[in-house]
Amino acid sequence: PAGRFSPAQMASPYGGIDLGGEDESGDKKIPTKSEVKQKKKADSKSHEFGSRYGAVDLGLPKIDDDEDAEPDGMDADAYRMDGDPYKGIGDAYGTDGDNYGSILDPNQAEGGHSSRYGAQDAPEDLEEKRMLERSKRKKETKYEKSLKTQGLRSIFENRRKIIDMKDWSKSFLEAEDLPENNVEEVLRKYRTLTKLSTDFIEIAKAYGRTAISEYFLKDKARTVKKHKLGGVAGGDKYLVRGILFKLAVDPAMGSHGWVYGGKKENFEYAAKAAGHELKGAINMYKYHVKKIRVPMQALVDFHGYRIVAMPLLPLKKMIYGSNDAGKTIHRSDEDFNQIMKEIAEDLHVAGHYIVDKDGVPNMLHAAGDIEGHLGKDEKYYLLDLARTFPPESVWDTPHLSRPLQAVFFRMLRPEFLQFLKEDRQPPLGPLSCDALTRWGQTYTDRHKHNERLREATRILCNEVIPAFAEEFAKRPVERLKAIHVSEELHRKGINVRHMGLLRHLIKADTPSADQARRTLLVAMCSRTLKNLLRREMRMELARHKKTQPSEHESRGMIVDFLNLVTRAHQTQQTYDFWGTEIPFELKVRFGPKAISIEEENNLFGAVRNDIVKIVKYIVDSTGVQLTTTCLETLESSGAGYEFVSVDLSALAVRIKHMSVIDYATAKVLSQEAYKDTGVGGDRLLSLAMESFYKTLQSDPLNTNCLREAQITRMRIAARENEKKKKDKFWAAADESLFEACKLADKAKDLDDVMNVVREILSTWKARLKQEECPEEYQKSGGASTSDRVHAIVRFVTEVEKVDNSGSNLTISLCSFFVHVQG
Which residues pair with 381 in a beta bridge? Predict the structure, then answer.
């Protein structure tokens, strides 16, 4: 991946990456016959997908820490002395067929004799083994027999006969399609979704944990067996109770290295790619109204590894994208092609050409390795969404390290794409998801897409981040102390990896600027330490690759790590940890500009007062659960606190899921609060607000959730008796109203807007009867609260008069903003 392409390779869609180097004259070295033979042997293991999963080397100067500074997540050489636990991992991706096709191992599919007994079984032992096998078969479920005797495809045809196989896909689709015309229907729909989601997540947690715990065991010793389902970058796959699990590993590409790590296997980057798949599913889910179905997904994190869980789908044929690394490009369904074009326009993603193995250019409006399928239920399904959004140009982020394979795990945010489309002047055109990758270098439009992507990255680094740095440094100190940095950055379309640049750009010498720099430093240290603990967890699992991981030894490793974080012991190891390792790892992830030389020499002193916040973030992000007594003592002790093994109550599974699950929970709680006007209703509204907030954390552009959240704030304010709390909620609701109206106008969903506006009207009229002038607004200056409230009521009253076509809605909104905000 670090080699440069020759002109012949750039012209060919299947040319491998040149790892041969150049001589001093600039000419390519001529390989010997033995070198050619070795390269062919290595390429045969990786198949032909390696040529696609490469990045474009633009020939720019490389920075010093490009190779050595990259975190390898887990040093593969550190635990390979007793045999190679990864031997055969590349072969797991050996088919270029459908990711959801039949089982490819004939012994596994047929339950063959050789796979049961092996080649060296003595004849006299066979009868005893046959009797043992017969006794085991009696205990097998119908589902297990079906897998062994008929193959995976037979599951779809016999699913009604399989006791252990739940049709999650059908259940979710039926729940999503339920009407919501009144309160009873809304409750029924979202209660059904909540119940299904809860069951799905609990099963995913249980079997995901087991699959990760048994990762290094041989297949015959596993409780959850691997299934060879094909595909390239999806990872090891498991199938249990109707749920498909994909372990996030870094696939080997033979002589081409690894898909994400390049020259070294990198589980940290593989986990990021799995996170992008969930983010893609969240953003694509809203298009189910266009007949596109995105399966429910969840990420299960345990012991430093990540696994993706999704329902098994009733797929019939592939109609869009590629599942064989670009050799075949599908776009056979014109209706689906048009839907994907409309979605791309909305997301600000560019259509581009990919040339297949026959030299035919095919226009796609998504990444080349996305998969669109027609199901047996005649519905459209969209899968493999890790590259839903375009990559960031590593050549235009000089403040970060520059791994070429970063185009497969460093993506631009959807909020930033909307900024380029709606708010920037002049707007920048749509971006290609395959720009700067070998997927996008097979047609003449590649130069346009590459340069536009580089320009977008420069806009992010040179315009968006500096503007946010100026605004961020002026916020009140108390607000900066309590802020969630990642949420603030995501709302502006800024990736968390740019915190180092953001901090470097805050130059002012004011209390607010000092607090802003400190807040960012604490956030960077927290994230760095989280990734280091995950790495240690993976290595601990690898050290016990022949057995199940020892809970006692895992706890001991975590306790030792946390004591390094709090500096419980004044040892050389502790000083090296904070004086050398943490500064190095922090700069690897956030760039050399993230901290100054003075801070690097005394990093622990710079974050000492926030060490409790750092520890809480680490344990929350890794599934480590501390006892209540430990948390209370930690709060009072701070830095220097010494952890012991009994402080850990559990090493739990951590799960991330699609925002629709939190939204469904919030809708149920919000609707049930209407029936309870007492204390119970107040609590239901508070819980609903928390679930709306969680939804917006993962999906900031969810306009429906934003409007529902601000209405819930108003309802909380109307119920609140304490003056200060009431003022606070009214202030938050008032500010949310402006944002909600803006987004409603952009959404152009007029029926929904009219319903929301009527809800706002009734709530604000109730407020007028209660109170005219909250103290929160008296301090802010400008138009008085009374004027603002009356203006809002006049506005919504006028909008109520507009007929259902909403023809005057945009004019009314503009007039309202001029009157109230101007």
Answer: 293, 373
- Determine which helix (DSSP H) or strand (DSSP E) holds 319, and give its type and residue range: strand 315-321
Sheet of strand 237-240, all strands in order from the earlier edge strand to the far edge: 237-240, 243-247, 305-311, 298-302, 654-657
Q: Is the pLDDT of residue 112 over 60?
A: no
Tokens 């953001």 belong to residue: 502
Cα–Cα distance measured from residue 442 to residue 322, given in angstroms and rounded to the nearest whole number? 15
Copy the structure tokens of residue 673.
């609060």
CA distances from 271 to 278, 298, 386, 715, 738 (A): 11, 13, 11, 40, 37
Phi, psi of 304 (to 5 degrees): 85, -5
Q: How far apart are CA 394 and CA 61, in angstroms?
A: 12
Contact 454, 369 (CB under 8 A): no
Report the sign of the C-alpha dihedral through residues 721, 724, 727, 732, in that order: negative
Residue (of 75, 56, 45) closest to 13 by Cα position: 56
Identify the DSSP state of 134: H
How many Cβ atoms sit within 10 Å of the Cβ of residue 487? 13
DSSP state of 79: G
Q: How far apart are CA 287 and CA 276, in angstroms?
A: 18
- Quote the distance between the C-alpha of residue 565 and its chain's center: 27
Retrieve residue 481's tokens. 């102390």
Q: What's the sign of the alpha-carbon dihedral 418, 309, 625, 619? A: negative
With a CB cutoff of 8 Å and minimum separation 6, the contacts of 570 are none
User: What backbone torsions phi and psi does residue 100 show, to the nearest 5 degrees?
Assistant: -120, 30
One-letter amino acid at 333 equals D
Q: Where are the alpha helices (DSSP H) in 623-722?
A: 628-637, 659-673, 679-698, 703-719
Name the band, by pLDDT with cuts 50, 70 and 90, for residue 787. low
- In DSSP terms, 353 is beta-bridged to 363
Give the C-alpha separation, 96 to 323, whole Å.
Answer: 6
Higher pLDDT, residue 305 or 441? 305
For 54-87, what is each residue's pLDDT tens digit?
676 666 554 444 443 444 433 333 323 333 322 3
Contact 368, 322 (CB under 8 A): yes
Closest to 712 in 3D by CA, of 744, 678, 674 = 674
Determine the angle formed by the axes of helices 511-543 and 267-285, rounding to 10 degrees: 110
Is residue 342 a contact partner of residue 290, using CB atoms and an 8 Å limit? Answer: yes
Which is nearest to 378 in space by CA: 335, 412, 430, 344?
335
- How many angstroms separate the CA atoms of 47 and 51, rounded? 9
Q: Name the token pair of 512.
A: 């607010």
Query: Is it true that the peptide bond before 426 is cis, omega within 30 degrees of 0?
Result: yes
